[in-house]
Amino acid sequence: MKKKTICFIIPKFLYESQGGAELQSYYIARELINRGWEAHYIREYMYPEFPKNYEKDGIFIHSIPFLHPQLRFLNTTCLFKVMQNIMADVWYCRATISYLFPVYWNARKLRQGKVVWACSHDKEIRGVKAAKPIIQMAWNLNQAIFRAVLPRINHILLQTQDQKNLLKKHFRLSGRIIYNAHPKVTGCSALTDNQTIIWVGRLQTWKRPELFIALANHFKKKPYQFIAVGIPIEGCGHLEASLRETDKALPNFKFTGELQNAKVCRLITQARLLVCTSDHEGFSNTFIEAWARGVPVISLKVDPDNLLTQKKLGVVSKSFEQLCKDVEHFMEDDRLWSEVSQNCLHFFNTHMTIDRAVSELESVLGN
Predict the structure, then answer these.
(1) How many domains in the chain?
(2) Backbone angles phi, psi at 259, to 5 degrees
(3) Does residue 86 belong to any structural domain of this protein?
(4) pTM for the model
């Protein structure tokens, strides 16, 4: 009997460039392989240190040329040739709206496979306001093509109720919410003598890493240790420079730079709190990685589906002054920390394990 086959179409593969969408796609692929599926991955060839085509952890990885983030529709023919060799039962698009039309078009030509689009960020639905007019024009073109094809595909997957509301408002469409997920974890954060506070994210302006620096400065007379894990982004070198300068200047602050996800998860396991200073997010993987280990989240603004507040998985501070108060409260009150830590573990194990998410995905694909 032929295996069911899924193919992920995403600009980058996890081992070549780490990101939330890449991580989620990898987790889903590995779980489906464990369930007897065959998993393929079509990504743009950007990194010469990796082969154009290879196999990693049971996933077959294929390449198409890298053109331009806003001109991916020009890759339609190259994409068709690769899709023709795979003939997947499911074509799963994530991390860009630009490939949805080429994938849909090619799948129709092949007369093979359901097309799925999984939202990776609110901006894909809400739209973008770019600083440069030419980039705005290119985004508007991609958004128009995306808007035309989205009602025609088989399944729309969303991360939060907020995204579902945005989809209804801007597209008059509905989709299925499947939370981002994480493999089950055996260890969790230890309370005793744990003074570490961690921040994890790409070094982008809207993630506000400078506020984490300010937080470390605010508590420089406390025994708290602050660890920032940051993935450099082109054009945001000033953020990396600030973090490195703070690493040298403050004894209670450490900047690790980019780390492999397994190392990040080990650091989260050793932390007492995860702090998020972002202005907005999709559904941050770091929240889930923290909850899986019993680590509460202190967030400045972001609260996906109000889970932090409603399920008591942490707090939303809303101002820097309150952020400082909330961090100190959780660092000094063991009873509060323990209660919220147990909430995190229970919620994760009930709602956010990868086996649960993939079971929901298989249910959607079976309809």
Answers:
(1) 2
(2) -130, 155
(3) yes
(4) 0.90
- pLDDT one-digit tens code per residue, 98-137: 999 999 999 999 999 999 999 998 889 988 777 788 878 8
Structure token pair of residue 148: 């035309």
11 and 158 co-located in one domain: yes
pLDDT one-digit tens code per residue, 2-37 = 799 999 999 999 999 888 899 999 999 999 999 999
CA distances from 245 to 74, 144, 223, 239, 248 (A): 43, 43, 20, 10, 5
Domain membership of residue 272 as a residue range: 196-351
Q: Are residue 69 and residue 142 in the same domain, yes or no?
A: yes
Both tokens of residue 54?
């290879």
Taking the C-alpha atoms of residue 117 and residue 350, their distance in angstroms, rounded to an integer, is 25
The verdict on 339 and 270 lying in the same domain is yes
Structure-block tokens of residue 341: 């830590």
- Using alpha carbons, select from 118, 113, 13 the residue that is nearest to residue 62: 13
Based on the domain organization, do 287 and 341 belong to the same domain? Answer: yes
Please say whether the beta carbons of 20 and 55 come within 8 A.
Answer: no
